[in-house]
Every structure is written in C-alpha cells, then in structure tokens.
Amino acid sequence: MVMLEQRTSAAPVADLVDEVDAGPATDEAAERRLRTLALSGAGVFAAILVGFWAWWPAGVVIGLVAGTLAVLHVGRAMQAHAFADSVDGLPDASVEEELREDLDRLRAELGDDWHVFRRAAVLVTRAQWASVAGLQRELRISTAAAQHVMGRLEREGFVGPSRGSRPRVVRLTRDRAAELEALMPA
C-alpha cells in the first residue's frame, strides 16, 4: 500500500517537474511573441505616420473638395427650402378673381405710381433680384421713389424682407412673369 501511495504521489510530482521545466521555455516563447507583436504594431504605426506625413497634401485637397461640395449641397438645400417657404407663384385660377380685386385696390391706392410699381414687379420677377439701387438704375427713378416702390413690393408679397447689402429674395418664379404682366394691365 505504501508503494501504491508512492507511485500515486510520485506521478503528480513528475508532472510538476515537467511543468516547471517547461515553464521558462514557454515564458521565453510567449515573451518573444509579445516582443514581435509589439514591434509589428510599432512598425505599422510608424508606417501610418509616414503615410500621413508624405500624403498630407492629398488629404488637404480631398478635404477641400469634400468641404466645398458639402457647402454647395447645403446651400442648394437652404435655397430650395427658402423658395418652398415663399410664395411659389401666383394663385390658381380659382383665386384669380380675388387677385384681380386686390390688384384693382392696389391700383387705386397707388394712383400715378401704379405704372412704376407694375414695371418694378415685372422687372424683379424677370431678373430674379430686387434691390433699391437696381430699381433706381433700371427704372430711372430717384432713390426715395425706389425705396418707396421696394417697400410696397415687400408689403404686397412680391419680394422678401431686406437682407442687408444682399438683394432681396424674389418670391415669384421667373416663368410666371408673363402671367404677372397679363394680370397687371398698364
């Protein structure tokens, strides 16, 4: 029985001796693998840095092009949104009678200024710009008269509000200019 116990106890001791003997060799192999992995990672990182350093002008150009395209896309979307919020043309034929009554009322209010107002409304609709200086130049009227006409165009909904030094937004599309002329007799 003693021998059996010795054999049983001797076998685990032999296994432990094998594990202890294999331990340093395994540790060295693992350490070599870790060193190789670390050096490989550092090499890849260095290659990426060199790539960025060598190709940064291409990255700048790509960034500028992408940024410009993004600005143009956002600008077009904002412009489309602004025009969608504004009056998209004259009302349908069902409202044409009411529109004619409003134009007759406006003609009576303006009196002698009706012809200048009519020319200004058609001009800004065809040209798709509206500024006091432009009206003064194209209609050959004084600055005060151009300001008065511009204010009236804004109140009647032909143009948007003032935007500083930039031209105002014209709320009627260019293709509706002929229809506007027909609705606003001379």
From TrEMBL:
<dbReference type="InterPro" id="IPR018541">
    <property type="entry name" value="Ftsk_gamma"/>
</dbReference>
<dbReference type="InterPro" id="IPR036390">
    <property type="entry name" value="WH_DNA-bd_sf"/>
</dbReference>
<protein>
    <recommendedName>
        <fullName>FtsK gamma domain-containing protein</fullName>
    </recommendedName>
</protein>
<dbReference type="InterPro" id="IPR036388">
    <property type="entry name" value="WH-like_DNA-bd_sf"/>
</dbReference>
<dbReference type="Pfam" id="PF09397">
    <property type="entry name" value="FtsK_gamma"/>
</dbReference>
<feature type="transmembrane region" description="Helical">
    <location>
        <begin position="37"/>
        <end position="56"/>
    </location>
</feature>
<keyword id="KW-0812">Transmembrane</keyword>
<feature type="domain" description="FtsK gamma">
    <location>
        <begin position="108"/>
        <end position="175"/>
    </location>
</feature>
<keyword id="KW-0472">Membrane</keyword>
<keyword id="KW-1133">Transmembrane helix</keyword>
